[in-house]
Amino acid sequence: MATIWIIFAVLTALAVLAVLWPLARKPATTDAREADVAFYKAQTAEIARDEARGVIGGDEAATARNEAARRLMAAQGRAAPDVAGASPWATRAVAVATLVLVPVLAIGLYWRVGAPGIPDDPLQARLDAPASSMDLPTAIAKIEQHMAEHPDEPKGWQVLAPIYTRLGRFDEAARAYRNLIRLEGPTADRWGALGEAEVFAKSGTVDDDAKAAFEHAVELDPKAPRANFYLGMAAQQDGDKAKARDLWTRLLADSPPDAAWVPTVKTHLAELDGRPPEASAAAPGMPSGPAAAQVAAMTPDKQQAFIRRMVAGLADRLKSNGNDIDGWLRLVRAYRVLQEPEKAKDALGDAKRTFAGDPAATKRLDDLAQELGLNG
Questions:
Q1: What pLDDT, in 10s, does the model give residues 332-364?
Q2: pLDDT tens, 246-268?
Q3: What is the pLDDT of residues 133-188, one digit of tens each?
Q4: φ, ψ at 103 (rounded to 5°)
Q5: Which among 117, 138, 115 is positioned nearest to 128, based on CA atoms?
Q6: Distances in Å between the alpha carbon of 17 and those of 3, 14, 28, 96, 233?
Q7: ∠ CA(167), CA(170), CA(175), 5° rounding?
Q8: What does DSSP assign to residue 133?
Q9: Closest CA to 264 of 237, 228, 298
């Protein structure tokens, strides 16, 4: 505690010194008459140098010297200004007032609005506080600390897994779901949530690990909506449109009409058939299927960052495997929704070059360009 007061005292002394230093210096005064004389003398010398170099002629030099001499005589005849120095008593009064008032006011203000008697609040103290008084980051840190010491307690992983997903910490969410499956046993929902976290972590790509998780889910529940949706995406990414259409058609038949994923499934089916998506469908770039509810719980900034990650992942996938006309259509739409028309035009151009020999695909791209106003 004594150390902090020493620091305060040093800072206060420095602040006072910064104010008193200019007051302690004797102000420098310059006679304006002397400055004018020096200036015109320098001007006369410059005229002589210009004449010697041939820059100006003799008549011009004489005229310039006469004008400079006239101004010089006028300056020498000018009365010197009466510059009165500041009163030493006034300077001392300002110095004393500064020396006394600055520390007094600073200490008084701190004593009134600060909390000098309260000790610091380290992380461990916050973690030991009652749960009802914690904010979300502190609560998460406390659970993480507990799980580091007790990794085989399933309740902590059950709490952390969905929170990690909502916060966009998808790799950690996948790890939490794996631990939950290890400790509590597999269920279709847990396998589906694990696969979805891995899809999010890969920017929307259903890789082999995610696909395996979804396959485990449908083994336990053949109608699991999340798993069937992403297995359809995997089939579409692999170019197996028939399998994707079959999975999504059966998913629609098994889903309630008001299910959150229905509009997105209809959008994907429309793309497979070359039809424009329904107006009520989710915007391109938004997470697909049951994931929409998870992302809807994110803050707007996290939603935007997540959507851009998904779009970037789709663009990277199409660079390595561009034989996916539906993927190109989604990418162009996504860039348009993100207000990035130049990227949309570039993606459209790349898609047209990829499908230059496919009249049906080219027509779909031309129709999309017309719809989105990208022909200009």
A1: 888 887 778 888 888 888 988 888 888 888 888
A2: 999 999 999 888 887 888 888 88
A3: 557 788 888 888 888 988 999 999 999 998 888 887 889 999 999 999 999 999 99
A4: -65, -40
A5: 138
A6: 21, 5, 20, 12, 70
A7: 120
A8: G
A9: 228
